[in-house]
Specification:
- The longest helix has 24 residues, at 120-143.
- Helix content is 68%, strand content 0%.
- By secondary structure, it is an all-alpha fold.
- It folds into two domains: 8-152, no CATH class; 177-285, Serine Threonine Protein Phosphatase 5, Tetratricopeptide repeat (Alpha Horseshoe).
């Protein structure tokens, strides 16, 4: 596994990776924290995490970034995962922290571009927070470089183009350690340009292994839409795109336009397919999804 050093070149590289990821995403989720989500986070939802108590015990972590009205969800995600790493020092938590930092950097990269004529200190604060997050991400990447955990092996292949990490990751295929939703999706991203049928099987398995009460990765649904559109199975593509739409906090007009195009060009019974999508999403969230034949 190659090693990494922290410096301006590294920070610049991280920014470029994040900006490419932002550019590649056609659908942007509105960056906001609703009152309901804030209540869930403060009360800890199913995990019964008391953020106020945790911050009293981990002041340095909670004060890592200057407080700002933007990117609160992403900032809280970083805080909670940093505390987990501090308390448990598990590689799986380090992977989640890497992803949390990336999410915060994506959000703050956009927020830092907003110029405040009256409150220039806000722009400065956001840029400072962005640099701090990138530095912490770079440091964590370096510290975790020799990990053999499959999530981190995948991370170093997908982010750092490490061939050795990919080789070690693929050698674990079929091992029980990959029998979880995240690892199955990671495998699917490798095979998506190599074997469509295998990729479908892995994506379906990822959905089968989804744990109730945990966040469902929208990228799984996006990948299913991409594959079925590519092989011209538009009914299935419509179902998974509608499922993706139902997963959003708010309906997305671009998605709705695409759904209408599928319907008009292929004479689909959308009333029936919408019901299938709704039922499918409910089963996934409940941990009751079973792979269909394909």
């Amino acid at each position: 596994m190659k090693h990494f050093s922290i410096g301006y070149k590294k920070l610049f590289g991280i920014f470029m990776i994040i900006f490419r990821q932002i550019k590649q995403q056609k659908l942007f989720r509105t960056v906001k924290l609703t009152a309901v989500l804030l209540v869930l986070l403060l009360n800890g939802c199913d995990n019964k995490v008391n953020l106020k108590k945790l911050c009293n015990e981990n002041t340095e972590i909670c004060n890592e970034f200057g407080k700002d009205s933007w990117c609160k969800t992403e900032r809280i995600d970083v805080v909670l995962n940093r505390i987990k790493v501090k308390n448990n020092n598990l590689d799986v938590d380090k992977y989640k922290l890497l992803i949390a930092y990336e999410g915060y950097i994506k959000c703050m990269s956009l927020a830092s571009q907003i110029q405040h004529k009256k409150f220039k200190e806000k722009t400065t604060l956001r840029k400072d927070n962005l640099l701090k997050a990138a530095a912490q991400l770079s440091q964590l990447i370096e510290q975790s470089a020799n990990s053999k955990h499959p999530h981190l092996l995948y991370y170093y292949w997908s982010r750092e183009s490490s061939d050795s990490a990919l080789k070690e990751f693929l050698q674990l295929e079929g091992d029980p350690i990959l029998e979880n939703s995240t690892a199955q999706y990671h495998l699917a991203t490798y095979y998506i340009k190599r074997d469509s049928n295998k990729t479908l099987g892995l994506l379906y398995r990822s959905l089968e292994l989804h744990q109730p009460g945990t966040e469902l990765s929208p990228e799984i649904l996006q990948s299913l839409v991409t594959i079925f559109t590519k092989i011209k199975k538009y009914k299935q593509a419509y179902i998974w795109l509608r499922t993706y739409q139902l997963l959003q906090d708010e309906p997305n007009e671009m998605i709705e336009t695409s759904l209408n195009s599928y319907q008009q060009e292929n004479a689909l019974d959308t009333d029936f397919l919408d019901k299938v999508a709704s039922s499918t999403l409910a089963k996934i969230k409940a941990g009751q999804f079973t792979s269909p034949s394909f």
